[in-house]
Structures are given as C-alpha cells and as structure tokens.
Amino acid sequence: MQRGGKAAWSELLGRKGGEAKAVVEQERPDIDGVILVPEDAIVTDDYCCNRVRIFVHCKAGDDVSAVPKIG
Predict the structure, then answer these.
(1) Which domains does the chain have, with CATH numbers?
(2) From CA 2, how far away is CA 6, in angstroms rounded?
(3) Backbone torsion region of residue 4, taken as left when φ is above 0, otherwise alpha when ψ lies between -120 and 50, otherwise beta
(4) Which positions ≥6 away from 66 have C-beta within 8 Å?
(5) Which of 3, 5, 46, 59 has its CA 20 to 30 A from that of 31?
C-alpha cells in the first residue's frame, strides 16, 4: 500500500466524473474502490481508507460536485 499519497483532489471539482476517476486511479493505484456516485444518492457514512467516492451532478451532466477524497 502506498503511504503518504494524496488523500483529496480539489482540482477535479467540476471535471467530468470519468476523467476524475481516471486521475485518482492513476495517482493512487493502491486504492481499490474509486466509485462514481450521483450527488443525491444515499450512502453509508462509514470511513474506508481504501475508497474514494466521486460525487457527480445528476441533472447537469456528470460533473464532479464535491471534492473527491479518501473515505
């Protein structure tokens, strides 16, 4: 597992979800779960150090609506 890697990607805010997912997977290949999630989806509030949820706008395309981060 990569230690000391990036934990948040503020520069991806507003980019297309697929592009954002590719960037996270490239920069942190040790993360098993990089998931695109509609911004109005109900998700668990558990913390997972091996997951990045990328919330995207549902009605305005698939632009990233929140800063992707580990958790």
Answers:
(1) 10-70 (3.30.10.10)
(2) 10
(3) left
(4) 13, 39, 55
(5) 59
3-class secondary-structure state, position 20? helix
> Tokens representing 31?
């993360």
- Sole residue written with tokens 């000391």: 4
Q: What is the mean pLDDT of each successive set of 10 residues along the chain, which is 71 residues long?
A: 79 96 96 94 93 89 93 93
**Closest by Cα among 55, 7, 53, 11 to 34:** 53
Look up residue 50 and give its two tokens: 């091996």
Residue in 34, 28, 35 with CA at minimum distance from that of residue 1 = 28
pLDDT for 3 equals: 60
Sequence letter at residue 69: K
